[in-house]
Amino acid sequence: MSTLKRFFQDTIIYGFATVLPRLMNFILVPLHTEYLGPAGYSINTTFYVWATFFNVVLTFGMETAFFRFFSHSEEKSKVFSTSFITLTITTVIFFFLVFIFRENITALVDLEPVYFNYLLGILALDTLVVIPFAYLRATNRPVKFAIVKVLNIAVVVILNFYFFWFVTEYPQLSPDLILANYSQEDKVGYIFIANLVASLITFLILLPYFFRTKIDFSIIILKQMWKYGWLIMVAGLAFFVNENLDKLLIKEMISDEVMGAYAGCYKLAVFMIIFIQAFRMGAEPFFFNHSKNENARETYAVILQYFVVLGSLILVILVVYIDFFKRLLIRDEEYWITIAIVPVILLANLFLGIYHNLSVWYKLTDKTRIGMYISIVGAVITILLNIFLIL
Fold this sequence. Notes:
Layout: H1 2-35, H2 38-59, H3 62-72, H4 76-100, H5 102-109, H6 113-128, H7 130-138, H8 142-169, H9 176-180, H10 188-206, H11 219-253, H12 256-266, H13 270-289, H14 296-320, H15 322-329, H16 342-358, H17 360-364, H18 368-390
Helix pairs in contact: 1-8, 1-13, 2-6, 2-10, 2-11, 2-12, 3-4, 3-7, 3-11, 3-13, 4-6, 4-7, 4-11, 6-10, 8-10, 11-12, 11-18, 13-14, 13-16, 14-16
């Protein structure tokens, strides 16, 4: 039971690092839905949908590949260095290509140029800290991981309240520089500014990790990690389709207002999402580190049983008390037109969590191609059903 005890200890700490930021972000939902109408919330949703897409492309499965090779390699320093150098170089290349095709990409993502600039800045900073964060998890440093994550979201929440509420209610306490450039009509932009500042602070905190290992690039390790990771990336893109295509299609086929209302009600599934993310944060490094134990399969099975029981309990509570939660989170009744989707989203996320448990086998056996095929099939079904049902 000592192995399971260690798993639950790490999961609680990683869960804290995930749950607390999500709960703090939970506070922002009433704030945003109160000050932004569904159309404004649609812009916010579009921004983070594309942020998710580009994050998958820029990291190209390197985080999971890092766990896989760092946990088994005798040259851990070389794995870290190779991973970090690779992501740095590919990020620079990405931004060079974006600069060349800037107008076309901006039109594709349907964002104002200034919002797109914020998006690029956030993507660059977040990509550069992927490996340092993975290093903290792989070396069993959940406390430091949690502190940095919580600080990041704390900055986001504080700045959001400052720009949305404090400046409006107490302008006399705000600097003249802020007041001179403050816009009541374009408040959604302040969400992105807050995120950019938080990403910059996180980058500066983790900057020392970039210099803790000597520059030791290995093309052999890179080839191995790429062979493993690109399949994860394809699976990640398919997952992006499953999670976000509905929002983009609703925006395109119906209206910004309906998409904003849909995205707002989607947030009511936050507790199930928190539970699944907390589990993944603790489970992924645990599964890799204990894969060679004799009773590994039995341990994974017990963990899945606990996951299903707790997840089902969360689903029942949220569905039974849906009226309470919708008034708590979304005070603007304009958003409630899409409240019926919440039970479906909760059940879908529970199934997703079960899949994350079961998918460990192909990650541990380096058969990530299977995961890619499963994700692609799921993405195709999602595309077809979304188009058919929305139309």
